[in-house]
Amino acid sequence: MTARASAAASAVGLEEITRIELIVSRRLRERTPGEHRSRAEGTGFDFVGLRDWQSGDRMSAIDWPQSSLTNFAPLVVREFEQPSTATVVAVADLSLSTRCGIARSHGHSRGETPIATAVGRALAVIGLSAAFFQDRFGLIAFERDFSHLAGVAPRAGRNHVVHCLDAYLARRGLEPVMHGGSVSTTLAGSFRTTSLVPFISDFLFDEALEVVGELARLNAVHDVFIVLVDSAFAFAMPDVSSWWIEVEDAETGTSRTVSRQTFAALGDRVRAWQADVERAARDADLDVVRIGLDAQKDDIALSEFVAERRLRKPAR
After folding, report:
1. Residue 152 shares a structural domain with residue 73
2. Is the pLDDT of residue 8 over 80?
3. In the chain, what is the greatest distance between 2 CA atoms, to the nearest angstrom?
4. What is the per-residue pLDDT across 24-71, written as a single tens digit (0 to 9) for each?
5. Residue 72 shares a structural domain with residue 175
6. 3-state secondary structure of 106
7. Cα separation of 189 and 174, whole Å?
8. Does residue 100 contact residue 114 with C-beta atoms inside 8 Å?
9. What was the pLDDT predicted at 274?
10. Which of 175, 131, 310, 305 has the alpha carbon at shortest distance from 227?
C-alpha cells in the first residue's frame, strides 16, 4: 500500500506537467484577456539582495565580483522582484502518509496512486498559473506534527515551478525553515511580502482543526485558501480473500490486525473527518477547493479558482 517517492515522482513527470501547462494556459487565456494588469506595469525590477546560487538560476544573474569573495563556492546571484507581480507560496503536506495509496490495474500492469500524486498535481497547477502571470512561486513542505518544515524560496519562471515539484516529490533540495512556535507564526515569518498561500493537504492528522484556526489567523494578513485532497481513495480495499488484514501506520511504523469490515469502513471515516475539516475552514472564512483522482476535472477547477483569486486580490 505504501508507494515509494520515486513512484510518486514518476506519476507527475514531464508529460503530465506538459498536459497541465496546456490546460492552465488555455483556461487562463480564455478567462483573463484584458482583465489582468499589464506585465510591463511599474518601475521594472527592483533589486532585493544577494543569495547563493540555486539550480535553474540564469548565468546572467550571477554577481561575479561578489562570487569571487567566496572563491566561487558558492556562486552568488543578484535577486530582483517586479512590483507589479504577486508572490505565491504553496504549503504542501509532506507527511509519510501522503506516499500511501492504492494499487490500480493499468492493462496488464499495476501502478500506485499515492496521495502525493494529487498534491503534486495541485502544486503544478498553482505553480504554472503563477508562471502565467509572471508571479514568483515558492514552496514550504511540512510533516505531520509540523516540527520540521523545509522549502524552496519563491522565484519566477516555469523551470522554477518544475524544480519545486521535483523537490516535493523526491524530497530533495529543500532548505530548512526556522520554526517560530505556532504554525501561523512560522509561516508568516517565512514570507517576505504579502502572499497568496494555498495550503495543500488531506488533513489526516490529529491537530487538523487547530491548524485550520492557525490558517485563519494567517489569513488576516495573507491570502490563504485550502486545497483539500479527497484521500478516501487511498483506503479503498484491494481484492483479498482473507478475513483479517494486517495494516501498518506509515507515520509511526506500528502495525495491527483488523477485520476486513473494519478496514473497509476507513474510507467513510476519512470522508466524515474531511467534511468536518471543510466545515471548520468555511466557518473560519477560508475558501476550500477539493481535489481527488479526476486529474483533468481537478486541474481545470483549480486553475480557474487560482486565476479568479489572483485577479480579485492583486499584489500589495
Report:
1. no
2. no
3. 70
4. 888 777 765 544 444 444 444 556 678 787 766 777 788 888 888 888
5. no
6. strand
7. 17
8. yes
9. 95
10. 305
Note down the domain range covering 213: 5-40+85-312
d(CA 236, CA 270): 11
50 and 121: one domain? no
User: CA 12, 13, 14: angle at the middle one, nearest 5?
Assistant: 130
DSSP state of 75: -
For residue 258, give Cα distances in angstroms to 100, 234, 239, 265: 18, 17, 16, 11
Residue 171's identity, in one-letter code, is R
Query: Do 123 and 60 share a domain, yes or no?
Result: no
Quick one: average pLDDT of 109-128? 81
One domain for residues 147 and 174: yes
Give the separation between CA 33 and CA 12, rounded to whole angstroms.
Answer: 29
Q: What is the mean pLDDT of residues 74-88?
A: 73
Count of structural domains, the chain? 2
Q: Are residues 65 and 102 in the same domain?
A: no
Judged against a pLDDT cut of 80, whether residue 230 lies above it is answered with yes
3-state secondary structure of 189: coil
Judgement on whether residues 77 and 102 belong to the same structural domain of the protein: no
Residue 103: count of CB within 10 angstroms of its CB: 13
Same domain, 215 and 71: no
